[in-house]
Specification:
Shape: globular
Radius of gyration: 17 Å
Largest sheet: 5 strands, antiparallel
Helix content: 40-55%
Order of helices and strands: HHEHEHHEHHEEHHHHH
Number of helices: 12
Distance between the termini: 43 Å
Strand content: 5-15%
Number of strands: 5
Length: 238
Protein backbone atom coordinates (compact mmCIF):
# COMPACT_ATOMS: atom_id res chain seq x y z
CA UNK A 1 0.00 0.00 0.00
CA UNK A 2 1.29 3.49 -0.85
CA UNK A 3 2.32 5.56 2.15
CA UNK A 4 -0.35 8.22 1.59
CA UNK A 5 -3.01 5.56 1.16
CA UNK A 6 -1.93 3.74 4.32
CA UNK A 7 -1.81 6.96 6.33
CA UNK A 8 -5.27 7.94 5.13
CA UNK A 9 -6.72 4.51 5.88
CA UNK A 10 -5.26 4.28 9.39
CA UNK A 11 -6.22 7.86 10.23
CA UNK A 12 -9.79 7.17 9.11
CA UNK A 13 -9.96 4.23 11.51
CA UNK A 14 -9.19 6.59 14.41
CA UNK A 15 -11.59 9.23 13.13
CA UNK A 16 -14.38 6.63 13.02
CA UNK A 17 -13.85 5.66 16.68
CA UNK A 18 -17.06 6.11 18.65
CA UNK A 19 -15.35 5.32 21.98
CA UNK A 20 -12.01 4.22 23.41
CA UNK A 21 -12.84 0.60 22.61
CA UNK A 22 -12.86 1.41 18.89
CA UNK A 23 -9.79 3.59 19.36
CA UNK A 24 -7.78 0.75 20.91
CA UNK A 25 -8.68 -1.51 18.00
CA UNK A 26 -7.39 1.15 15.60
CA UNK A 27 -4.23 1.54 17.71
CA UNK A 28 -3.64 -2.21 17.61
CA UNK A 29 -3.91 -2.17 13.82
CA UNK A 30 -1.49 0.77 13.67
CA UNK A 31 1.16 -1.08 15.68
CA UNK A 32 1.04 -4.19 13.51
CA UNK A 33 0.97 -2.17 10.29
CA UNK A 34 4.38 -0.75 11.24
CA UNK A 35 5.79 -4.07 12.43
CA UNK A 36 5.44 -3.73 16.20
CA UNK A 37 4.08 -6.43 18.52
CA UNK A 38 2.58 -4.20 21.21
CA UNK A 39 1.68 -0.58 21.89
CA UNK A 40 0.85 1.36 25.04
CA UNK A 41 -0.50 4.84 25.71
CA UNK A 42 0.79 6.29 28.98
CA UNK A 43 0.58 9.54 30.84
CA UNK A 44 3.80 10.93 32.29
CA UNK A 45 3.92 10.10 36.04
CA UNK A 46 3.00 13.15 38.11
CA UNK A 47 4.82 11.87 41.18
CA UNK A 48 7.75 9.58 41.78
CA UNK A 49 5.51 7.17 43.63
CA UNK A 50 3.09 6.54 40.78
CA UNK A 51 2.74 2.85 39.94
CA UNK A 52 2.87 1.41 36.43
CA UNK A 53 -0.85 0.64 36.33
CA UNK A 54 -1.57 4.26 37.27
CA UNK A 55 0.21 5.66 34.21
CA UNK A 56 -1.13 3.21 31.61
CA UNK A 57 -4.23 4.44 29.82
CA UNK A 58 -4.52 1.87 27.03
CA UNK A 59 -2.31 -1.09 26.17
CA UNK A 60 -2.05 -4.37 24.30
CA UNK A 61 0.50 -5.75 26.80
CA UNK A 62 -0.50 -8.83 28.81
CA UNK A 63 -1.58 -8.12 32.37
CA UNK A 64 1.15 -10.32 33.84
CA UNK A 65 3.83 -8.17 32.19
CA UNK A 66 2.38 -5.03 33.75
CA UNK A 67 2.33 -6.74 37.13
CA UNK A 68 5.94 -7.87 36.76
CA UNK A 69 7.22 -4.45 35.77
CA UNK A 70 5.27 -2.79 38.57
CA UNK A 71 6.65 -5.27 41.08
CA UNK A 72 10.28 -4.57 40.19
CA UNK A 73 10.35 -0.81 39.95
CA UNK A 74 8.58 2.53 39.37
CA UNK A 75 7.59 3.70 35.86
CA UNK A 76 10.56 6.07 35.66
CA UNK A 77 12.86 3.03 35.67
CA UNK A 78 11.36 1.90 32.35
CA UNK A 79 13.58 2.84 29.40
CA UNK A 80 10.60 3.48 27.14
CA UNK A 81 9.17 5.99 29.61
CA UNK A 82 12.48 7.61 30.55
CA UNK A 83 13.47 8.35 26.96
CA UNK A 84 10.04 9.85 26.27
CA UNK A 85 10.23 12.08 29.35
CA UNK A 86 13.61 13.48 28.32
CA UNK A 87 12.76 14.38 24.72
CA UNK A 88 10.18 16.17 22.60
CA UNK A 89 10.85 14.00 19.54
CA UNK A 90 10.42 10.25 18.91
CA UNK A 91 13.11 8.13 20.56
CA UNK A 92 14.20 4.55 19.88
CA UNK A 93 15.14 2.30 22.79
CA UNK A 94 16.69 -1.15 22.96
CA UNK A 95 17.11 -3.82 25.61
CA UNK A 96 20.56 -4.57 24.19
CA UNK A 97 21.88 -1.24 25.42
CA UNK A 98 23.26 -1.52 28.96
CA UNK A 99 22.21 2.00 29.94
CA UNK A 100 18.63 1.27 28.88
CA UNK A 101 18.19 -1.57 31.34
CA UNK A 102 17.86 -0.26 34.89
CA UNK A 103 15.10 -1.13 37.29
CA UNK A 104 11.97 -2.78 35.96
CA UNK A 105 13.20 -3.44 32.42
CA UNK A 106 16.45 -5.02 33.61
CA UNK A 107 14.58 -7.50 35.75
CA UNK A 108 11.97 -8.37 33.13
CA UNK A 109 14.08 -8.52 29.97
CA UNK A 110 13.44 -12.23 29.39
CA UNK A 111 9.71 -11.73 29.89
CA UNK A 112 9.58 -8.94 27.33
CA UNK A 113 11.63 -10.95 24.87
CA UNK A 114 9.16 -13.79 25.40
CA UNK A 115 6.33 -11.68 23.96
CA UNK A 116 8.42 -10.40 21.07
CA UNK A 117 9.79 -7.15 22.49
CA UNK A 118 13.53 -6.43 22.27
CA UNK A 119 13.37 -2.78 21.26
CA UNK A 120 10.89 -0.07 20.44
CA UNK A 121 9.94 3.49 19.72
CA UNK A 122 8.45 6.09 22.06
CA UNK A 123 6.56 9.10 20.69
CA UNK A 124 5.88 12.04 23.09
CA UNK A 125 2.44 13.67 22.82
CA UNK A 126 0.84 16.68 24.50
CA UNK A 127 -2.83 16.90 25.46
CA UNK A 128 -4.86 20.09 25.14
CA UNK A 129 -4.88 20.39 28.93
CA UNK A 130 -1.09 20.49 28.95
CA UNK A 131 -0.59 16.92 30.16
CA UNK A 132 2.26 14.98 28.57
CA UNK A 133 1.65 11.50 27.25
CA UNK A 134 3.66 8.80 25.50
CA UNK A 135 2.82 6.27 22.83
CA UNK A 136 5.39 3.52 23.06
CA UNK A 137 5.65 0.77 20.46
CA UNK A 138 7.50 -2.44 21.29
CA UNK A 139 8.68 -5.23 19.05
CA UNK A 140 11.70 -6.79 17.36
CA UNK A 141 12.43 -4.79 14.25
CA UNK A 142 15.06 -2.43 12.88
CA UNK A 143 14.55 1.32 12.96
CA UNK A 144 11.88 2.62 10.63
CA UNK A 145 12.96 4.41 7.46
CA UNK A 146 12.68 8.18 7.98
CA UNK A 147 9.65 8.45 5.70
CA UNK A 148 7.84 5.72 7.67
CA UNK A 149 8.79 7.36 10.98
CA UNK A 150 7.36 10.66 9.76
CA UNK A 151 4.21 8.87 8.64
CA UNK A 152 3.78 7.10 11.97
CA UNK A 153 4.36 10.34 13.85
CA UNK A 154 1.64 12.13 11.91
CA UNK A 155 -0.84 9.29 12.48
CA UNK A 156 -0.04 9.24 16.21
CA UNK A 157 -0.70 12.98 16.50
CA UNK A 158 -4.08 12.50 14.83
CA UNK A 159 -4.84 9.40 16.93
CA UNK A 160 -4.08 11.18 20.19
CA UNK A 161 -6.18 14.17 19.17
CA UNK A 162 -9.11 11.77 18.70
CA UNK A 163 -8.43 10.06 22.05
CA UNK A 164 -8.17 13.39 23.85
CA UNK A 165 -11.50 14.49 22.37
CA UNK A 166 -13.22 11.22 23.31
CA UNK A 167 -12.07 11.64 26.91
CA UNK A 168 -12.93 15.35 27.15
CA UNK A 169 -16.43 14.81 25.78
CA UNK A 170 -17.05 11.92 28.13
CA UNK A 171 -17.27 9.30 25.39
CA UNK A 172 -14.94 6.95 27.20
CA UNK A 173 -15.99 3.31 27.23
CA UNK A 174 -18.17 2.31 30.21
CA UNK A 175 -16.47 0.85 33.26
CA UNK A 176 -15.51 -1.71 34.24
CA UNK A 177 -15.57 -3.48 30.84
CA UNK A 178 -16.61 -2.34 27.39
CA UNK A 179 -19.16 -4.23 25.33
CA UNK A 180 -16.45 -5.72 23.11
CA UNK A 181 -14.35 -6.76 26.10
CA UNK A 182 -17.42 -8.48 27.54
CA UNK A 183 -18.04 -10.20 24.20
CA UNK A 184 -14.49 -11.56 24.21
CA UNK A 185 -14.74 -12.75 27.82
CA UNK A 186 -18.16 -14.30 27.17
CA UNK A 187 -16.85 -16.35 24.26
CA UNK A 188 -13.77 -17.31 26.30
CA UNK A 189 -16.08 -18.60 29.03
CA UNK A 190 -17.64 -20.84 26.38
CA UNK A 191 -14.26 -22.38 25.63
CA UNK A 192 -13.39 -20.48 22.47
CA UNK A 193 -9.78 -19.67 21.61
CA UNK A 194 -8.56 -16.24 20.51
CA UNK A 195 -8.46 -17.43 16.91
CA UNK A 196 -12.05 -18.68 17.09
CA UNK A 197 -13.26 -15.49 18.81
CA UNK A 198 -11.56 -13.37 16.16
CA UNK A 199 -13.45 -15.25 13.46
CA UNK A 200 -16.77 -14.97 15.32
CA UNK A 201 -16.42 -11.22 15.94
CA UNK A 202 -14.78 -10.47 12.57
CA UNK A 203 -11.72 -8.85 14.16
CA UNK A 204 -8.05 -9.82 14.29
CA UNK A 205 -6.60 -12.22 16.84
CA UNK A 206 -4.31 -9.41 18.02
CA UNK A 207 -7.34 -7.23 18.74
CA UNK A 208 -9.00 -10.06 20.66
CA UNK A 209 -5.90 -10.39 22.84
CA UNK A 210 -5.79 -6.62 23.37
CA UNK A 211 -9.39 -6.63 24.63
CA UNK A 212 -8.62 -9.60 26.87
CA UNK A 213 -5.52 -7.99 28.34
CA UNK A 214 -7.35 -4.74 29.05
CA UNK A 215 -10.17 -6.65 30.74
CA UNK A 216 -7.66 -8.47 32.96
CA UNK A 217 -5.99 -5.18 33.85
CA UNK A 218 -9.29 -3.48 34.72
CA UNK A 219 -10.49 -6.36 36.93
CA UNK A 220 -7.03 -7.05 38.40
CA UNK A 221 -6.82 -10.64 37.15
CA UNK A 222 -3.67 -12.61 36.36
CA UNK A 223 -5.07 -14.95 33.70
CA UNK A 224 -8.13 -15.72 31.60
CA UNK A 225 -9.47 -18.32 33.98
CA UNK A 226 -9.55 -15.86 36.86
CA UNK A 227 -11.04 -13.22 34.57
CA UNK A 228 -13.92 -15.45 33.52
CA UNK A 229 -14.59 -16.46 37.12
CA UNK A 230 -14.57 -12.84 38.30
CA UNK A 231 -16.87 -11.57 35.54
CA UNK A 232 -19.34 -14.32 36.39
CA UNK A 233 -19.09 -13.53 40.11
CA UNK A 234 -19.69 -9.84 39.39
CA UNK A 235 -22.63 -10.85 37.16
CA UNK A 236 -21.06 -9.09 34.17
CA UNK A 237 -21.70 -12.22 32.09
CA UNK A 238 -24.03 -15.16 32.60
Amino acid sequence: MLTLGRQSNLSQQFSASANTEDWLAALTNLAYEFGYAHVTLLKIPSTAGSGVSAVILETTLPQWIIREVGHHGPPNDCAAIRCGMSSLVPQYWSMDEDDALPGAIALTTDSFRGIGITCGLTIPLNGLNGGKHLLTFGGDRTHLPQAALNELGMICLHAFEIYDRLCRTGIKSPSPLTKRELDVVRWTAQGKTSVEIAEILSISEHTVNAYMNNAMRKLDCVNRTQLVAKTIRLKLIN
